[in-house]
Amino acid sequence: MDKHEIMRRRKVIFAGCLSKRLIKKGSRNIHKELRCCVCGKPLVRYIPYDKSYVTLSKMYYLNVLGFNFGMCRYISSCYNYISKRKG
Ligand SMILES: [Zn+2]
Question: What pTM was estimated for this model as a whole?
Fold first, then answer.
């Protein structure tokens, strides 16, 4: 997936979402594990010694057709994660 494809997907998702919230890194407001719906990067993870779900990096919390998704705040995060994964 190249940068334009990532941009296109993010645009489509933003256009289709009913609401979006910006969630800060370190926030404990999301109570389930979430990955970015564009690149698959883990965004919220359960931290056992903390006994809570912690947001790992700044992200959007989106509602699309009643379903909740996470998405990296910055397109560069998606791009970096995808290019890293490709090796
Ligand atoms: Zn992403």
Answer: 0.90
Q: What is the pLDDT along the chain (87 residues), one digit of tens a residue?
A: 889 999 999 999 999 999 999 999 999 999 999 999 999 999 999 999 999 999 999 999 999 989 999 999 999 999 999 999 876
Q: Which residues pair with 84 in a beta bridge?
A: none
Nearest one of 71, 1, 3 to 38, comparing CA atoms: 71
Ligand 1 center from residue 6 Cα (angstroms)? 9
Residue 64 has phi, psi (to 5 degrees) of -120, 115
Residues, CB-to-ion distance under 5 Å, ligand 1 = 36, 38-39, 41, 72, 78
**Residues constituting the chain:** 87
